Amino acid sequence: MEDITISVEEMINFIFKRCGESVNKDTIAMILDIQEEFLDSYGLVDIDEDDMY
C-alpha cells in the first residue's frame, strides 16, 4: 500500500465545505483528534506530527 500524506488543515477544510460550512472548524478539529487517537490505539495509522497545524 502506498503512503499518502494529508494535513489536518486539508481534512478540516474538506469537511467544513462538505457540511455546508455549518459545523465549526474547532469542532471538526476536535473530532479528527479523537479519531486519530482511536485509529492509533489499534495501530491502524502512523501519525507524523509537524508544526503546520
Question: Layout of helices and strands, plus pairs?
Answer:
Elements: H1 8-18, H2 25-41
Word description of this protein:
- The protein has 53 residues and is mainly α.
- It is 53% helix and 0% strand.
- It has helices at 8-18, 25-41.
- Helix 1 (8-18) crosses helix 2 (25-41).
- The chain is globular and about 30 Å long.
Task: For the structure shown, list the relevant keywords.
53 residues, globular, single chain, mainly alpha, 2 helices
Percent of sequence in beta strands: under 5%
Ends apart, CA distance between termini: 26 Å
* Large-scale geometry: globular
Write down the secondary-structure element order. HH
Low-confidence stretches: none
What oligomeric state do these chains adopt? single chain
Strand-pairing-aware structural class:
mainly alpha
Largest sheet: none
Count, helices: 2
* Count of beta strands: 0
Considering DSSP H and I runs of 4 or more, what fraction of the residues is helical? 40-55%
User: Average pLDDT, to the nearest integer?
Assistant: 85
Rg, Cα atoms, Å: 12 Å
Short structural summary:
The chain is an all-alpha fold and 53 residues long.
